[in-house]
Amino acid sequence: MIEKLLFDRDYYQRYYFNTRTAVTSRAEMNARGRLIAGFADHIGQPVARILDAGCGVGLLRAPLRRAFPRAEYSGLEVSEYLCSRYGWRQGSIAALRTRERYDIAICYDVMQYLTSTEARQAIATLGRVCRGLLYFGALTREDWENNCDRSRTDPDVMMRPATWYRRELAHVWEMDTAGT
User: Fold this and answer.
1) Are strands 130-137 and 102-108 parallel, antiparallel or unpaired?
2) How many domains does the chain have?
3) Quick check: is 120 in a domain?
4) Looking at the domain assignment, is residue 136 inside a domain?
5) Is residue 71 part of a domain?
6) Is the residue at 1 inside a domain?
7) Going edge to edge, which strands form the sheet with 49-53?
8) 178: pLDDT confidence band, cut at 50, 70 and 90?
9) DSSP of 94-110
10) What percentage of the chain has pLDDT greater than the value 90?
11) Residue 53 in contact with residue 126, Cβ under 8 Å?
């Protein structure tokens, strides 16, 4: 993981709590939660367990709990500060060792903070723990060059092309469909 980033109070103050510099909003994350829930409903995915890997301040928790009131929501986060503040499970999806399986696994805006080796491990872990719907997103080189608001987006990340993520996700998918 990029060591100079501490994911401390100052980091979250800038990218989440300060409305002038926040990378997202509660409204946007509520809409994202409805999208995830709507897709699960569309494919007929029963939802009893949700993993939000890199859950941050937990902006997806409320909309997912509204959509799936009986589901268990598990937040996984590397930040000691956030785990202390919100009670999330501390750890990285790259190093997660568990027998637990989840009907929905979310990994949004996490991979760009991991080295390529860690990102591959994280993607393999997601393939192992997700037994239903995977919601995945990562800042790519193309996003940085063409799409994102650079004044609100953390530039201190691994800039990989979208094709890298597609290839790694396809590899896990091929292993899963082959029964390995």
Assistant:
1) parallel
2) 1
3) yes
4) yes
5) yes
6) no
7) 89-90, 72-77, 49-53, 102-108, 130-137
8) low
9) TT------EEEEEEES-
10) 67
11) yes
